[in-house]
Structure formats: structure tokens, C-alpha cells
Write a structure and sequence with these properties.
This protein has helices at residues 33-48, 52-64, 71-87. It is mostly helical. Helix 2 (52-64) packs antiparallel against helix 3. The chain is elongated.
Length: 106
């Protein structure tokens, strides 16, 4: 944001948002909700296509846009742990995800 430019506002409640905030201090709406939805869609598509590395990359980027302590962050961390285990062979891929060998887990 350039000097003198107006502060961004929350799409939900209109509160001023200081630079660097990840959630609105007034209504708790995630500031980057649209980007988070896009990243989740990218990660899920990569998972379904068997590209676990691309899925992990998208989920890592999503983590950067989430405040600590959120349910979404905990959910993504658990998903990433499962994908990492599948990628390095410690566990089978999650249900519905194509295994690195090309077989889909039921």
C-alpha cells in the first residue's frame, strides 16, 4: 500500500484492516478468503491427480494466509501430514487420492 492510500476494508463488515492482518479484528472474517478458496481447489485438484508435491505446495501457501490457532490451519496441517506420509511412503494416500504408482485408494 502506498503512503496516503486508504486502508483496505473488510469485505464483510467494512472495518479498516491494518497491513499484514490475516483476519478482520471486528468480525474475524479471513482477509484472504478468496485466495484460500483458490489454493484449496488447486491443492485438491493436485491431490486427485496424484501430484502430492503440488498439493503440499498449495497447502503451504494457504498456511501463510491463515492466523495461528484457527480450525482451518489445524485442518490443513493434518492434511499436509497425511500427504507427506503418503509421499515418502510412510502411509497410503488419503481416500480418493491417486497413489504415486497411479492406483487410486478407495
Amino acid at each position: 500500500m502506498s503512503p496516503g492510500a486508504p486502508s483496505p476494508r473488510c469485505d464483510a463488515c467494512g472495518a479498516d484492516l491494518a497491513p499484514g492482518l490475516l483476519a478482520c479484528p471486528s468480525c474475524a472474517r479471513l482477509v484472504h478468503a478468496g485466495e484460500l478458496r483458490r489454493l484449496a481447489a488447486d491443492a485438491e485438484a493436485a491431490e486427485q491427480g496424484g501430484d502430492l508435491t503440488a498439493a503440499l505446495t498449495a497447502w503451504r501457501r494457504a498456511l501463510e494466509l491463515l492466523p495461528p490457532g484457527t480450525v482451518q490451519r489445524a485442518t490443513i496441517l493434518a492434511r499436509m501430514a497425511s500427504l507427506s506420509a503418503a509421499l515418502d511412503g510412510r502411509a497410503p494416500p488419503p481416500p480418493g487420492v491417486v497413489a504415486p504408482g497411479g492406483r487410486r485408494k478407495a
